[in-house]
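Colleagues,

For the teaching module next term, I've prepared a clean inverse folding example: a structure given as tokens, and then the sequence designed for it. I'd like students to try predicting residues themselves before seeing the answer, so please don't circulate the second half yet.
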């Protein structure tokens, strides 16, 4: 089952013939062994671990760790990352030629962006027998014009490089104005572009009530679309992709809405994250034919920034409602709350102040969730559901899953029963998520199968039995209830639909069908 709220690389090799205790040359290692050993060798030079179990605990979106330093050279110490400012944290060494070649570029970045709140920091955490005086002389000779943190014992390497699974220098980390990692890579390969993008998105956050940004369209593939927003008309701008199952499942609903509001609302589907350009998109649109009843455009990734990035949205599908005055009225999932908003906007009954409050609570709740602050996150989720349960049903799922995962089983199921009495009960994708979390093959603390069946059957009813993932969930409920005949019936239908949809879950569904059929035949 795919949860509906979802969005969307080289190691060097080297030959280093070792010697035995008698200094005799050994036969060279095989290529495969050399490839396996090289990252570990580099890690030893850097003073960090190559243990893959540590890799990727620090990634884009993670809060930036502190910089540990025995001494700060060439500038004032950076005790913490100041809110609203950007930092480039580069790990380097005096013995590293690529690091030395990067110095002029980093100097230039400091000059060019310093007045925009950018600080470049060079972290020397892998010096070989160096000392602060030698490092200070080197920095002066090379004309380094930014602060340098000298970490004699490599503590920063462990919290940054090792945590990010990085084993080579130079490596740069871009820390954005929220104190989070925005980019990781070689300072000469994409850093400036990432910095410019982060600065641009930090300049203005897109919120409900703000003027709608300009549309950056490469070309329209279906319909005439709109390059600007006509006064007096309402628009739905949806960001989607052909490879995104929830996006594809949203198409019939958006087509129905376009028919319902013909002449009043114009729906624009913007495909700005296609993996192979417009070729697959064009083919997909042609195959769908009249099943897509609204305008479709191809755009490159830059179309994301003024909308998705500015609104702090990283998952697709995401829809923006632009009201008749040209302002963003609402941001959310096209299957969760869009209908209600369109009705209010087209009738002139939409309350922008209420929406602004929702956005504020949502941001606070998201921040609490990211920090693992479940007391505030839980209170925020409750407030969001009270204000607009239809648009924020996914948050109810987050709270339910957390309760169940932390062993509060009775509280989890009591909570689920309570939210099923709200508008959450009209959101099929979220109902399916609830049910699947209870019955998924992975270990679950306890299973309330009657509650799972209630959610799955309601989701199936809302989708007229036409959603393969929901049918797969329903079949698993019956399988766990040992109603194997019913499990086979629903799973066969799930497989049929998955074939029609060309779903990437088809193989998984077919495997479960085979299991159910074996049990039913006994």
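(Answer key — instructors only)
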């Amino acid at each position: 089952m795919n949860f509906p709220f979802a969005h969307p690389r080289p190691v060097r090799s080297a030959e280093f013939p070792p010697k035995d205790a008698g200094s005799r040359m050994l036969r060279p290692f095989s290529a495969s062994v050399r490839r396996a050993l090289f990252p570990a060798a580099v890690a030893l030079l850097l003073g960090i671990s190559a243990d893959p179990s540590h890799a990727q605990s620090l990634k884009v979106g993670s809060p930036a760790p502190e910089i540990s330093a025995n001494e700060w050279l060439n500038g004032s110490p950076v005790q913490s990352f100041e809110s609203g400012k950007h930092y480039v944290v580069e790990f380097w060494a005096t013995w590293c030629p690529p690091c030395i070649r990067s110095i002029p570029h980093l100097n230039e970045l400091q000059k060019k962006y310093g007045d925009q709140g950018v600080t470049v920091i060079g972290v020397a955490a892998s010096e070989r027998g160096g000392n602060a005086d030698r490092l200070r002389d080197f920095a002066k000779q090379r004309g380094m014009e930014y602060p340098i943190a000298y970490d004699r014992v490599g503590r920063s390497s462990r919290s940054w490089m090792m945590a990010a699974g990085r084993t080579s220098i130079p490596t740069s980390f871009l820390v954005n104005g929220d104190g989070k990692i925005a980019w990781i890579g070689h300072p000469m390969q994409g850093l400036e572009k990432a910095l410019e993008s982060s600065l641009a998105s930090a300049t203005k956050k897109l919120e409900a009530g703000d003027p709608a940004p300009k549309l950056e369209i490469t070309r329209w593939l279906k319909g005439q679309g709109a390059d600007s927003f006509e006064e007096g008309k309402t628009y739905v701008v949806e960001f989607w992709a052909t490879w995104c199952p929830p996006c594809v499942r949203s198409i019939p609903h958006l087509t129905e809405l376009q028919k319902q509001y013909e002449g009043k609302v114009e729906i624009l589907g913007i495909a700005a994250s296609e993996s192979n350009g417009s070729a697959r998109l064009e083919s997909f649109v042609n195959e769908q034919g009249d099943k897509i009843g609204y305008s479709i455009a191809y755009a490159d990734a830059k179309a994301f920034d003024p909308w998705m990035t500015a609104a702090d949205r990283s998952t697709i599908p995401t829809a923006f409602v632009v009201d008749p005055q040209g302002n963003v009225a609402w941001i959310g999932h096209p299957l969760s709350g869009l209908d209600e908003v369109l009705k209010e906007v087209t009738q002139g009954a939409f309350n922008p102040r209420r929406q602004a409050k929702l956005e504020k609570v949502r941001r606070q709740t998201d921040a609490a969730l990211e920090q693992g602050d479940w007391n505030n996150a839980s209170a925020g989720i409750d407030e969001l559901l009270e204000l607009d349960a239809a648009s924020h049903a996914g948050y109810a799922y987050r709270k339910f899953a957390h309760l169940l995962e932390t062993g509060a089983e009775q509280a989890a199921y009591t909570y689920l029963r309570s939210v099923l009495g709200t508008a959450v009960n009209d959101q099929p994708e979220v109902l399916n998520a609830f049910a699947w979390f209870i019955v998924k093959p992975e270990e679950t603390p306890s299973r309330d199968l009657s509650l799972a069946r209630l959610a799955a059957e309601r989701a199936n009813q809302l989708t007229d039995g036409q959603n393969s993932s929901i049918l797969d969930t329903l079949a698993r409920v019956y399988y766990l209830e040992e109603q194997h005949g019913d499990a086979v019936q629903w799973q066969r239908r799930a497989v049929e639909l998955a074939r029609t949809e060309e779903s990437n879950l088809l193989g998984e569904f077919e495997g479960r069908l085979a299991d159910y059929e074996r049990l039913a035949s006994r």
